[in-house]
Amino acid sequence: MSNVTIIAEAGVNHNGDVDRALEMVDVAADAGADAVKFQTFSTDLLVSASAPTAAYQQSAVGVARQEQMLRGLELTRAAHHRIVERCVLRGIEFMSTPFDWGAAEFLVSIGMSRVKVPSGELTNDGFLRRLAGLGLPLIVSTGMATLEEVRHAMGIIEQQSRREQTSEPSVVLLHCTSNYPAAPADVNLRAMRTMADSLGVPVGYSDHTLGINAAVAAAALGAVVIEKHFTLDRSLPGPDHAASLEPDGLRALVAAIREVESMLGSPDKRPSASELPIRDVARRSVAAARSLCSGQQLTG
After folding, report:
1. How far from chain centre, in Å, is Cα 62?
2. Residue 102's CB: how many other CB atoms inside 10 A?
3. For residue 101, what are the contacts with CB-CB under 8 A and spacing of at least 6?
4. Residue 201 burial (CB count, 10 A)
């Protein structure tokens, strides 16, 4: 059984086209990912009319305002239903990141079984409380955050779970560098272990670097969830395509992580079964320099 959950992040790389979104479900399933994840939002609820695009977004889409960019990236509720149906058909988990409470309620109503909290909402205490109140497992991205901000968010989640009298919340914290693409020198994978040791919860990694090396390294360091953006074509217009894997890259990522899982093995230090025959011929042994009789006593 796999220890690392691989989330193929479709995000908004469908460019608002449901047929492209459905094709992305197929690509993620064919690659062997455990889940495919989208983003569910209402532009009017997410950004103000004056909110500027980030530098990487402006470079990719050529517009100065978030509102202009996001309207073309929304998926209708009918589109969500079609995506869920395709996920069921292909045997892959459906996920989508909600950016407002109405989106969260809708996603749960169509069968989403765990909630992804985006980095930008980590400090949104009210939203965190409501998401924790759903009683579902949470995967929480921590891009742009300090350890104290992450600790505060965990306190909010735990407090709400106690208030709702639900069981101890199931939370995975994802280390993340919120830049697209993220430079290797900014990845700081050791922070993933810092969160695990300081907060006592499972950790993973949301990867925005080019290529697959960072995600594979995170798996080797103990990540239990890996999230990676993918696209059908990196040359498509849109904010995230250039920093995403194409289908061949997604397949390579899944294969590499599964190989790392196999390599990690057990914490026990012992010879593998395949080593035992080699041990018999490779280790030193005692041999007589001349013929001996049966029962002959040897003296030093």
Report:
1. 29
2. 13
3. 127, 130
4. 17
Q: Indicate the SS3 state at residue 291.
A: coil
Provide CB contacts within 8 A for 179, sequence distance 6+.
56, 186, 208
On the question of a cis peptide bond just before residue 181, with omega within 30 degrees of 0, the verdict is yes
Centroid of chain to Cα 136: 17
Partners of 9 in beta bridges: 37, 229
Give the residue among 218, 141, 270, 209 at the shortest CA–CA distance from 131: 141
Closest CA to 186 of 175, 197, 174: 175
Q: Is the predicted pLDDT of residue 196 greater than 60, yes or no?
A: yes
What's the whole-number mean pLDDT along residues 11-21? 97
**Coil, helix or strand at residue 250:** helix
* The CA-based dihedral angle spanning residues 184, 190, 192, 197, taken in that order and rounded to the nearest 10 degrees: 180
Tokens of 165: 């009298």
d(CA 298, CA 287): 12
Is pTM beyond 0.90? Reply is: yes
In this predicted structure, what is the pLDDT of residue 36?
A: 98
Determine the pLDDT at residue 58: 85
45: left (phi over 0), alpha (psi -120 to 50) or beta: alpha
CB-count burial class (<10 Å; 0-12, 13-18, 19+) for 67 = middle
